[in-house]
Amino acid sequence: MSARSHPIMVALDVPDAEAALALASRLEGIPCWMKVGMELYYAAGPDLVRRLKAQGHRIFLDLKFHDIPNTVAGAARSASKLGVDMFNVHAAGGSAMMRAAVEAAGEASTTGETPLVIAVTQLTSTTEETMRREIGIDAPLADVVVRYAALAKAAGLHGVVSSALEAAAVKAACGADFVTVTPGIRPAGADVGDQARVMTPAKALANGADYLVIGRPITKAPDPREALLRIVEEIENAKGEARP
């Protein structure tokens, strides 16, 4: 699975399976992934993932596993058996937990292709002040992201979730093939909502992001299909401007 193939991941942050399937149908034919997060998965369960896969979608299962290694390994097996293309764990769970996840994913895959296992570094809603004063990590936020990324790579993971602001530093530290998945993506002029570290799609890709997680600018738009097409156009126009 090559990085940046269909870089847009649509966050299906909707309350139930009916809404998710309706949205996925409206976006049919536009190359993109579907991200199934906590709200939707806990409401609709694994059957929704199976139905989306049956429709031909690539799935990023965004449940952020964080527990003892044995428990996370079990969760990783379950995710792999569902046939998801990517899932994540929290890097803060440590090396043993991350190794357990990637090893279990490889053992349990039913598709012949091991899902990408990536690690959450710091949430894009986290500010450096929050990290220092509340989480208790007294270091520059960008340094913490890169440290977690290096830890994830050493544990055998395929990449990390970070803000686009740190994507270039992650690539520099972990190599061009180490995948960067970046939430907090907002098209030019869009409301940033509860995100603290944001970037436009074109700038994020230029900064080293491989995949762009985009939710509300698409899902809350009056016409989600048109909103997604505008983002695709924004990216293509930026690529054209970047060519000599």
Distance between the termini: 28 Å
Helix coverage percent? 40-55%
Query: Judging from the principal axes of the Cα atoms, what is the shape?
Result: globular
Instruction: Indicate the mean pLDDT.
Output: 90
Q: How many beta-strand runs?
A: 8
Q: Return the structural class.
A: alpha/beta
The proportion of strand residues reads 15-25%
Report on the structure:
With about 240 residues, the chain is an alpha/beta fold. It contains 11 helices and 8 strands. Strands 1-2-3-4-5-6-7-8 form an 8-stranded parallel barrel, surrounded by 6 helices. Strand 7, helix 9 and strand 8 form a beta-alpha-beta unit.
Any key phrases for this structure?
single chain; alpha/beta; eight-stranded parallel β-barrel; 11 helices
What layout of secondary structure does this protein have?
Blueprint: E1 8-11, H1 17-26, E2 33-37, H2 38-44, H3 46-54, E3 59-65, H4 69-82, E4 86-90, H5 95-108, E5 116-120, H6 128-135, H7 141-154, E6 159-161, H8 167-174, E7 179-182, H9 201-206, E8 211-214, H10 216-219, H11 224-242
Parallel strand pairs: 1-2, 1-8, 2-3, 3-4, 4-5, 5-6, 6-7, 7-8
